[in-house]
Amino acid sequence: MSAGAGRRPRRFDANLVVIGAGSAGLVSASVAAAARAKVVLIEAGRMGGDCLNTGCVPSKALLRSARIAAQMRRAADFGVVAGPVTVDFAGVMARVASVIERIAPHDSVERYTKLGVECLSGAATLLSPWEVGVGSRVISTRAIVLATGASPALPPLAGLDAADPLTAANLWSLRELPRRLLVLGGGPQGCEFAQAFRQLGSEVTLVEMQSQLLAQEDAEVGAALAARFTREGISVLTGWQALAVGQPGELRIGRDGASRVAGFDRILVATGRSPRTTGLGLERVGVGLNPDGTVQVNEFLQTTRPNIYACGDVAGPYQLTHAAAHQAWYCATNALFGALRRSRIDYAVLPRVVFTDPEVARVGLNETQARERGIRCETTRYGFDDLDRAIAEGTAEGFIKVLTPPGSDRILGATIVGPHAGELIAEFALAMRHGLGLRKVLGTIHSYPTLAEANRFTALAWQRTRLPATLLGIAGHFHRWRRG
After folding, report:
1. Which of 12, 37, 136, 482 has its CA 20 to 30 A from that of 335?
2. Where does 317-377 have alpha helices with state H?
């Protein structure tokens, strides 16, 4: 029997109920179980959520196949003779499914049950701030974590529904490679899919209404990626707005009063995601939403109901799996131990990666953000065209850019466009997190020949511009004197 929105039970069945078994929910549940709390995890769909089933895992498996196809076409550049490259797209998608299957046990009911989590399957509804209904069962709990994620959002574009659009959620059922694919959206997801399908053999058109790809990055980052895409045969249309899907296989787009038609056999929409809040009963218990549909949370990740927390895509502001996991730790610990001590969420050092080729990675500020916030900084650059390992591997493309305060080696932010940028950014994230400046990076031995040397050479470039001319002059005189 429900206690109602204003009546708190005297006893509770659980310390914590987590709704959603994606990255955020799984981490929240595992942290709570590790703390010996009674935790119930409820998932309406598949364990692992979007990341395992339709997001990070399948997309990276798809990208791997695409990269291999692209590398095989370059075999002659490395003195290797190979025949024409043929892509078995059904085989590619079968491998994607096998990768999901192999990783699924990491997120399975069996694993979390062994960790001490009670796992339930079904749609959860908030009956009161302290009660959650799932099927015929009502669970009373001291605290609740909302971790329901988000779903692909389709823009209000005339004729789009009739075109049977693909999204990150449903494209995994494809078994035939589209001959002409139109990708709507030039953010991280749109760029990754556009390049992958082009490398697999599709004719790809990428339409982005902003003036550049990856609009949250510096303009030169978007330009570098657009140049690479163009060389690979992708038609990159930035600054064009989708107007309507007209005749079958035709998207009308417009810019500055002009219009044109982009043709396609399939259209893939990658224009954003909508938080999953429908049917949870948030209105019933007084949990508020932001204008963008995310759940309102404070710096402790509490909603407008203090014992109800939210993390991951449903809360925002970052739609990143590792950001969701980061938030989840705060949610679980604050929900369980907040009466004793609460922790404020810290986003200061949050790396992000776009898994294109070359990869794009950033942590901290970029030049655009620093300029908008009035933060004075100096920029140090290093190009991969100078790096021995990148030259040897035929990946000598891109750059590292590090921001520091004037006269200081403290790292405000780092942007990397280049091979394995997602791996290289970790050193800068570590340095920022623990207050280590570029001098410490420079003073660390990096194995030769490795891509990681690029980080050290960036620090060296910073150091070289700061060697005092007077001291260098004195050193020159000293060495001439020593020569006699």
Report:
1. 136
2. 321-337, 367-372
362 beta partners: 352, 415
- Any idea which residue has 């960790």 for tokens? 115
Residue 468 pLDDT level (bands cut at 50, 70, 90): low
pLDDT at position 216 over 60: yes
Is the pTM higher than 0.85? The answer reads yes
C-alpha 426/C-alpha 445 separation (Å) is 16
E strand or H helix at 284 = helix 282-285
> Distance from CA of residue 466 to its chain's centroid?
35
Alpha-carbon distance 205 to 196, whole Å? 12
Task: Determine the pLDDT at residue 470.
Answer: 65
Q: Return d(Cα 304, Cα 301) in angstroms, integer.
A: 10
Say which residue the tokens 């990076």 belong to: 441
| Token pair listed for 391 | 């030259």
212 SS3 class: coil
Nearest to 427 by CA among 328, 375, 356, 349: 349
